[in-house]
Amino acid sequence: MKAAIIGYGKMGREIERILAERGHEAALVIDTDNAADLDARHLSGIDVALEFTTPATAYANIRTCLENGTAVLSGTTGWTERLAELKQLCRERNGAFFYASNYSLGVNLLFRLNRELAALVGRLDPACEVRIREVHHTQKMDAPSGTAITLAEEVIAGLPGRRGWVNYAPGLSHATNRVETPEEAGADRIVIESVREGAVPGIHSVSYESADELLELRHTIKNRRTLALGAVVAAEFLCGKRGVYGMDDLLANS
Ligand SMILES: NC(=O)c1ccc[n+]([C@@H]2O[C@H](COP(=O)([O-])OP(=O)(O)OC[C@H]3O[C@@H](n4cnc5c(N)ncnc54)[C@H](O)[C@@H]3O)[C@@H](O)[C@H]2O)c1
Questions:
Q1: Is the shortest distance between the CB of 64 and ligand 1 below 6 Å?
Q2: Deepest of 5, 109, 200, 216, by most Cβ within 10 A of its Cβ?
Q3: Do both 80 and 169 map to the same domain?
Q4: The domain that contains 205 carries what CATH number?
Q5: Measured from the CB, is residue 101 less than 6 Å from ligand 1?
Q6: Within this chain, do residues 132 and 234 fall inside the same structural domain, yes or no?
Q7: Residue from 16, 42, 52 whose mutation best tests the ligand 1 pocket (most atoms within 8 A of CB)
Q8: Do 50 and 137 belong together in one domain?
Q9: Which residue among 29, 51, 54 is best mutated to probe the pocket of ligand 1, counting the most ligand atoms within 8 A of its Cβ?
Q10: What's the domain range around 12?
Q11: Within this chain, do residues 36 and 91 fall inside the same structural domain, yes or no?
Q12: Closest Cα to atom 18, ligand 1: which residue?
């Protein structure tokens, strides 16, 4: 596979290593210093572009790939209010687009367990309190994490009377839907707590609590390798296909 890496940061560098290990070629590497090279000429002959940049740049990068007929996979978080637009563009152009807020196998199993648990709790104890907590390294640009938002959306779909989420993120002025205290949330909002510390690659937990019991799902990423490996496996899956895909499609075919 002839790959392009868009965003040569922590993920881009890890992806480059995994591409080499799996016998692929990183034929084009784009970062801020050569961002203008993301064009038809340089994308020509690329099988899949892997995009891990910033919330402010992901949309335009993915759009450029789709407009040039290049299959593109992205994992950039914090911009997904415009994701539907790009999925639509991909369908109109008969292109190929893969997006996941988290490429780790364990987190995607967590998503599945959480979906099932939310549906069960929705029937057995719909009034129970649900809290989500995520911990990441201090350089992370978005809050809450894309993974925490996916977890919250699954809870909202499963539990009656939940209408949205808020973010309790002390000290993070850039957080979306931020509240100053968890109590501000109201019973119909799920509280996502965001913590930024050290070099933590990612911890997510979902807790379901009633007066007498506490049930918690928790996932810890031990290193970034698992995320980069998941992205490269997804790029292999996307290579040669047309359509819009996500981790459920990949796992269903594994
Ligand atoms: N989906 C997942 O599994 C997953 C896993 C890890 C990180 N992420 C997300 O991926 C993104 C990148 O994470 P990271 O840890 O590699 O961050 P990082 O800050 O280490 O790297 C981002 C890189 O993108 C570059 N960049 C910025 N604008 C650019 C542009 N216009 N064109 C090309 N490159 C540009 C930056 O210079 C930097 O090198 C973040 O949004 C993060 O939340 C997702």
A1: no
A2: 5
A3: no
A4: 3.30.360.10
A5: yes
A6: no
A7: 52
A8: no
A9: 54
A10: 2-103+224-252
A11: yes
A12: 9
Q: Residue 87, SS3? A: helix
Q: How does pLDDT run across 211-243, given as a tens digit for each residue?
A: 999 999 999 999 989 999 999 999 999 999 999
Ligand 1 center to residue 179 CA distance, Å? 26
pLDDT, tens only, 10-55: 999 999 999 999 999 999 999 999 999 999 999 999 999 999 999 9
Q: Are residues 122 and 207 in the same domain?
A: yes
In a shared domain, residues 75 and 126: no
pTM, whole model, 2 decimals?
Answer: 0.89
Both 69 and 153 in one domain: the answer is no
First to last CA, the chain: 19
In the numeric block, the tokens 């996307």 are attached to: 238
Rounded Cα distance between 144 and 171, Å, is: 13
**What's the CATH code of the domain at 31?**
3.40.50.720
Positions marked catalytic: 136, 140
Cα–Cα distance measured from residue 203 to residue 75, given in angstroms and rounded to the nearest whole number? 17
Per the structure, how many domains does the chain have? 2
For 169-203, the pLDDT digits (tens) are: 999 999 999 999 999 998 899 999 999 999 999 99
Q: Is the CB of 54 under 6 A from ligand 1?
A: yes
Which atom of ligand 1 is nearest to 145's Cα?
43
Instruction: Give Cβ neighbours of residue 175 (< 8 Å, ≥ 6 apart).
Output: 143, 144, 167, 169, 194
Residues in CB range of 216: below 8 A, 6 or more apart: 205, 206, 207, 208
116 and 210 housed in the same domain? yes
Report CA(159)–ligand 1 centroid distance (Å). Answer: 33
